[in-house]
């Protein structure tokens, strides 16, 4: 029998857990989505490198580079890759079924100008992209976290915007879009306080939807119900 210690061992210090802007709802992959990972991930997928990636080497060319954060089911990114074959696109999404769906779509279209991460966007942006390596970042319809106690989970926060400012080249663009008015107001407040960005429509103003963002089926249905949509376009100064 072991001897009883004179005192209890010291408790391990609590680990700091960063606030996440998402809840990981993986869902169940359909057989087609699982095949997409099996057959197409090697072509389109990217594992976090943990260091700046040479994107010109990845795409075997030098082109306009656009990052979409939280692409959902990939509808907009697939559309953009087809509409702008002379641009290169990188997408980040944590929801595996959505990634699988886009993998299938890109393969079906025969596109080679898109690469996908299934990982946390903040970590990828911080480590895999060098300063000034992006021409545009798109964050369309992120989770609004509409309950006040959850507002701190919103992706568009001062610290994240400061990180974006280091990764978008001067003269580049940050395009935010939301269908939640309170989140649009929050975005304006955060963005207008950052001196590295200039609102293309003027402080506190939204812009008309540019032709680089397609109108989704969800958005069309919402507009029929009287829901608003706000596009916020900011130039990196």
Lay out the secondary structure:
Elements: H1 31-44, E1 45-46, H2 55-59, E2 64-69, H3 75-83, E3 87-92, H4 96-109, E4 114-117, H5 121-128, E5 134-140, H6 158-167, E6 168-178, H7 181-192, E7 197-199, H8 217-224, E8 230-236
Parallel strand pairs: 1-4, 2-3, 2-5, 3-4, 5-6
Antiparallel strand pairs: 6-8, 7-8
Helix pairs in contact: 1-4, 3-4
Description:
With 237 residues, the chain is of the alpha/beta class. The protein has one domain (33-236): Vaccinia Virus protein VP39 (Rossmann fold), CATH 3.40.50. The protein contains eight helices and eight strands; from the N terminus they run αβαβαβαβαβαβαβαβ. Helix 6 links the parallel strand 5 and strand 6 (168-178). Helix 1 crosses helix 4 (96-109). Residues 194-221 are annotated as: Disordered.
Q: Key features?
A:
single chain, 237 residues, alpha/beta, Rossmann fold, 8-stranded mixed β-sheet, 8 helices, disordered N terminus, tRNA_methyltr_TrmB_bact, tRNA processing, tRNA (guanine(46)-N7)-methyltransferase activity
Under CATH at level 1, the class stands as Alpha Beta
First-last Cα distance: 70 Å
Whole-number count of domains: 1
Largest sheet: 8 strands, mixed
Helix and strand pattern: HEHEHEHEHEHEHEHE
Per DSSP, the total helix count is: 8
Radius of gyration: 20 Å
- Under CATH, the topology can be stated as Rossmann fold
How much is the average pLDDT? 89
Structural class: alpha/beta
β-strand percent reads: 15-25%
> What sort of overall outline do the alpha carbons produce when their principal axes are compared?
globular
Low-confidence stretches: 1-14
